[in-house]
Design a protein that fits this description.
It is a single chain. By secondary structure, this protein is an alpha/beta fold. It has helices at residues 30-46, 67-75, 95-108, 125-128, 136-150, 190-198, 216-229, 248-270, 277-285, 294-308, 324-347; strands at 9-14, 51-54, 82-85, 88-89, 114-118, 156-158, 166-169, 181-186, 203-206, 236-244, 290-292, 312-316. Strands 1, 2, 3, 4, 5, 8, 9, 10, 11 and 12 form a ten-stranded parallel sheet that branches. Strands 6-7 form a two-stranded antiparallel sheet. Strand 4, helix 3 and strand 5 form a beta-alpha-beta unit. The longest helix has 24 residues, at 324-347. The chain is globular and about 60 Å long.
Amino acid sequence: MTINHRNLEFGLDTFGDLAFDDTTKERISYSESLRNIVAEGKLADEVGIDVIALGEHHREEYSISSPDTVLAALAMVTKTIKLGTGVTVLSSDDPVRVYERFATVDALSNGRAQIMLGRGSFTESFPLFGYDLQDYEELFEEKTAMFSELRKGKPLTWEGKFTQSLKNADVFPKIEGYQLDTYVGVGGTPESIIRAVRYGFPVMLAIIGGEPARFAPYVDLYKKAAQQLGQPILPIGMHSHGVIADTDEEAYEIGWNYIKKSMDKIGLDRGWPAMSKERFDFEVEHGSYYVGSPETVAQKIARMMPQVGVERFDLVYGTGGQLQKDRFKTIELYGTKVIPRVKELLAAGDGNA
């Protein structure tokens, strides 16, 4: 699939996995994790990465339950990187408060805020904030519609079933001259693609396992739906897990030790079998893990982006925690070596191999 190599974006995503201390090998505290994530975002900005996206989670292995607060801190220590989420669980939040918080981050960062709306692949936030999982679909549909109206920046009159009713209500702070940069995170359902098109939002595909090319039909669906509904064809991105180190062997060891651990823990909740060596090797070689030296990872990204048809790629780093030094190493190599190499390969046409 042809992509425009002149409009490429590259991001970093983290769920705030609690890292491990380089010396003691013990898991660090939540407070230290949050401060380190700010340092990681600062490094990402310094090495030229386009976007950093922080995921919202309410589980013991993650430190980020309030991404916008961390993004506000990042706004003060970064210069050009976009400050986003991956994702904000809109279904279990108040669209008005979400909009106000991100309008605040946008002001603090001089227009660099980006929000990614999602239903949430984890469900802990629903009982935590008093929502019924039986309303899972309806909550996201209604709140996305409300958020779409809030982005227009005008006083809102609104009648809601799951949301508050408003009469000519205004929301502050104001964003002047443009609308809040908003994506929708999609795990792989046609209905989610159609919804994003209907509201005029670009899409980020969460590709966390299997062959990435199987998501290409969703890109085609987005484009066809946009044409049929008279909506613009907006950028489509993908995010996947990865580890970058000086050598393939070093990256593989980190990935096997930590990505496997993370996936096995999630699998206990969802009924997945433990990850086998064969499965991990498949994901590294042909699937959705980007694990290896800078050249290995760059070559794979440059192959996969055209296969899926996306112009944005986000690397999910730090999966399972990892040593802090290894997290910094992944960020540094991604910004200084991988991204320039991917652009070089795609510009030369090698990414279509």
